[in-house]
Design brief:
Layout: E1 4-15, E2 20-27, E3 40-47, E4 50-59, E5 69-74, H1 79-85, E6 92-99, E7 109-115, H2 119-131, E8 137-144, H3 153-162, E9 166-172, E10 183-184, H4 189-195, E11 203-208, H5 210-222, E12 230-234
Parallel strand pairs: 7-8, 7-11, 8-9, 9-10, 11-12
Antiparallel strand pairs: 1-2, 1-6, 2-5, 3-4, 3-6
Helix pairs in contact: 2-3
This protein binds flavin-adenine dinucleotide.
Flavin-adenine dinucleotide binds near residues 56, 74, 78, 80 and 235.
């Protein structure tokens, strides 16, 4: 897909769990960039009408069939997120993309494994699956230390409620809140087998920190997954 460079206006900024802010952006020229679900884009500030020098890659957390673009960004106190933290609705951001080989290609048996902000690309993929009425089985395993750190939950729960063939399994590694109905502990083979029927034949999408991605790849291969069907995006 051809790279595009466009100016977007921030429509909305919502505080999610774990210090993550959900940015919704609308394209100033009325047409979104074209991308495949799972891809990322470079985001920068618009300064004096031009693209600022400081930019960072962010996974697109929305479906390409959406008119707006969404990003789930953890405010870390680093150079660029310190700028984003102060931004408000109505201000402008530059977006260059799409980029990356982490792409959903209409596979019909899919297991998504996410930790932290890795949920961003998965949200985009599953929203696309729902929007395009893609048939098949889709299970997202989403790991967080604590319940309060879960991001994009409203969107994910809505996708599942409207599309029962898209399942979302939340797991917590550092607490067991009262009344918690999700899983506990790190994502493991037993958990995947329990919730995702036929996982060994699935295409795996793994997104999160490097250590998480390494462990999840090993787990998927241990389940019998085809190494060519394990797609990974990792950072941090
Ligand atoms: C393909 C790809 C997709 C990505 N998608 C997402 C996404 O969807 N959401 C998301 O939140 N991030 C994502 N990232 C990460 C993102 O690009 C940035 O790296 C992140 O937002 C931090 O940028 P920053 O400029 O704020 O931090 P930087 O200034 O670049 O610093 C990097 C890290 O070092 C820490 N740091 C900086 N200075 C210091 C210091 N003096 N002492 C100690 N620590 C310090 C910061 O806290 C930060 O965590 C993605 C990265 C890649 C490669």
């Amino acid at each position: 897909m051809q790279m595009e460079k466009k100016i977007f206006t921030i429509q909305d900024i919502r505080d999610e769990g774990g210090g993550i802010k959900l940015f919704t952006l609308s394209p100033d020229d009325g047409t979104n960039i074209r991308f495949k679900p799972g891809q990322f884009a470079m985001v920068c500030k618009i300064e004096n009408g031009g693209f600022g020098k400081l930019s960072r890659p962010y996974s697109i957390a929305s479906s390409p069939l959406h008119a707006a673009l969404r990003f789930a960004i953890k405010i870390t106190g680093g150079q660029f997120t310190s700028v984003l933290e102060k931004m408000k609705a109505g201000e402008k951001l530059g977006v260059t993309g799409p980029l990356g080989h982490f792409q959903y290609e209409k596979e019909e048996n899919v297991v998504c494994l996410a930790a932290g902000t890795g949920v961003a690309s998965m949200t985009g993929i599953l929203e696309y699956v729902a929007h395009s009425r893609q048939k098949g089985k889709f299970t997202l395993f989403y790991s967080n230390k604590k319940k309060g750190a879960i991001a994009c939950r409203e969107i994910l729960d809505h996708i599942h409620a409207e599309n029962p063939h898209i399942k979302v399994v939340y797991t917590l590694t550092q607490e067991q809140p009262e009344g918690w109905k999700g899983e506990l502990g790190r994502i493991n083979a037993e958990m995947v087998r329990k919730h995702a029927d036929g996982a060994k034949d699935a295409t795996f999408f793994v997104c999160g920190p490097l250590e998480f991605a390494k462990a999840m790849k090993e787990m998927a291969l241990g389940l019998g997954a085809d190494p060519k069907k394990v797609k990974i995006e990792a950072w941090g």
